[in-house]
Amino acid sequence: MSKPKVFVTRAISEKGFELINDFCDVDLWMDDLPPSREDLLQRVRGVDGLLCLLTDRIDGQVMDASGQQLKVISNFAVGFDNIDINSATARKIPVGNTPDVLTDATADFAFALILSVGRRLMEGERYVRNGQWKTWGPMLLLGIEMKGATLGLVGFGRIGKAVARRAMGFDMRVIYYSPHEKKPDPDINATRVDFETLLEEADIISLHTPLTTETRHLIDSEAISKMKPTVVLINSSRGSVVDLDALYEALKFNRIFGAGLDVTEPEPLPLDSPLLTLDNIVIMPHIASASKTARDKMSWMAAKNLIAGLEGITCQIVSIHRCINDLLTQGLRPCMSKLFFYNFLSLT
Ligand code: NAP
Ligand code: GLV
Predict the structure, then answer these.
(1) Which of 157, 185, 211, 337 lies 20 to 30 Å from 25, alpha-carbon distance?
(2) Counted domains in the chain
């Protein structure tokens, strides 16, 4: 029997790639840069499955270019704003993503940004390398004390909560804003507040929402004007959640203390961006989930999602943890070889 044809839009770690290679006839995009729109539209033609990255815009045009045999789209990311879920649902194409497996890596990185900006790590490093370090100074590169600081989390899902857990170890007060009330977690002491209160009370604000029409430019000049002048703003969600023009104005005139961005709008940030002229910002190239462990697990999960879709398994499993917990509470033992690591966003 012939193997299903799939297009994989970039090399992923072998943990998942070997699974795909065993099961499928793979067309792998070998370049380090994403396929152009034209290449994407051409290479998806006739495939049964597509494994894509957050850098690929997958809309109805791509689905139609592929053809009616397209059975599954597997996104190598937890965020799925690059995929038109409505178009996939209308065409009965299940879409997979990779939640949970990158939560800790991403939360670690958000915390690294909090410390880098709050304690001015990058500025200190530049100071040493530039030969400016002449002596110890009582007023040199003063930053923010973590203990007792109020951390405001915008979005209190998997990653937001993982950041809150880390904040407990720093003796921070944690407040959060999320549209829906959350069940209290025994290991997190956090208070839900409205968005405005969060902006006004937080010493550090860290963003952990998906990118949606509601969250696009959620942090604009109006939101920034409500923040403390001493606030540290961290974004490791999606670049478009922050209006970078407004952020630049605020940083330039020291209306806030500093910012740390793992994500920008656009990506990559152009080298002539005025943000790059400022000292009070740390900008990273979208690497919050980039631990070897997380990327291996993402690779494996994205492969499992792809193969499940090709096999026609379209049950909705919202999260692997929930799925395994459900089975355990029903007295069933999760079988690791089949069925338990799928995550589909659109349903047929
Ligand atoms: P998640 O578990 O789905 O959590 C998302 C949270 O955002 C939920 O608590 C949700 O609230 C909240 N939310 C939705 N709309 C909101 C709004 N308008 N205002 C405030 N909060 C809102 O997702 P996750 O796994 O934590 O991931 C979050 C996002 O991080 C992803 O979508 C992705 O874009 C980004 N991410 C980035 C990286 C990176 O490398 N930089 C890595 C991983 C993830 P309710 O539950 O109350 O609806
Ligand atoms: C990374 O940004 C992801 O959404 O997985």
Answers:
(1) 337
(2) 2
Q: Residue 344: its pLDDT value, please?
A: 64
Cβ atoms of 99 and 77 closer than 8 Å: no
- 53 with 177, same domain? no
Query: Could you tell me if residue 337 is inside a domain?
Result: no
CA of 209 to the centre of ligand 1 (A): 3
Q: What is the pLDDT of residues 28-38, one digit of tens each?
A: 999 999 999 99
Q: Which residue's alpha carbon is nearest to atom 27 within ligand 1?
A: 159
pTM for the complete prediction? 0.93
Q: If you take atom 3 of ligand 2, which residue's CA is the nearest one?
A: 77
What pLDDT sits at residue 93? 94
Residue 238 lies in a domain: yes
- Mutational pocket test of ligand 2: of 53, 100, 106, 305, the residue with most ligand atoms within 8 Å of the beta carbon: 106
The residues carrying an active-site annotation are: 238, 267, 286
Domain housing 223: 103-283
Q: Contact 175/195 with Cβ under 8 angstroms? A: no
